[in-house]
Amino acid sequence: MIDWSPPNRPATYAEKSLITAILNGDYPPGAILPAERDLAGKLGVTRPTLRETLQRLERDGWLTIQQGKSTRVNDYWRDGGLNVLNALVRYGEKLSPDFIPNLLQVRLALAPEYTRQAVELSPDQVSRCLQDSTALQDNPDEFASFDWRLHYSLTIASGNPIFTLILNGFAGFYEQMASIYFMHSESRKASMEFYQSLNDATRRNDLIAAENITRIMMKKSIALWKSYAGGAL
Question: φ and ψ at 34, to 5 degrees?
């Protein structure tokens, strides 16, 4: 159920409470929200604050607001935008079991392309970033932090800012899950081999090899994650 305790930051509190209620099923897709006055009272915020929050949630795809009609909860998987992804990783306490594999599938679709473009446009920048992997300590947090920096740098170097916006949609969550993934020595070993192979391809300016190496590693990371999930991580 929703925690109706008084907010410290009213707009942030109202947004978090409503999104959490939607994710928890208190307001499932198709549900009608309480009248504005009642909802503002439950949340302990002013009606202007609530109205601003509802409008922001509508822009992100959580809600449909029609003047003179009740506010309806959308199917956020179908109607949501990139901000929904960000909210899911911030507020979703219990994500569905296939959420992370689905994210990894998206990375599989995107990473080979932005890596190829990065190697084509900024090979020196890519190589400098990969060179830092040689100094990695053999612990999960260091690998998680480096892996995030690498993929972030690759999206920047690709010259296509949309890649970066998509990646930023799950910024903190990426490292959180990567730390779990890299708890396993097999994952750290596989990634280290990937960094070295990608660096070699980058130095040769071999775009096709860089793309293929990345695709193979992204597929392997999905298989490894699923194997760990099967053992309850």
Answer: -60, 160
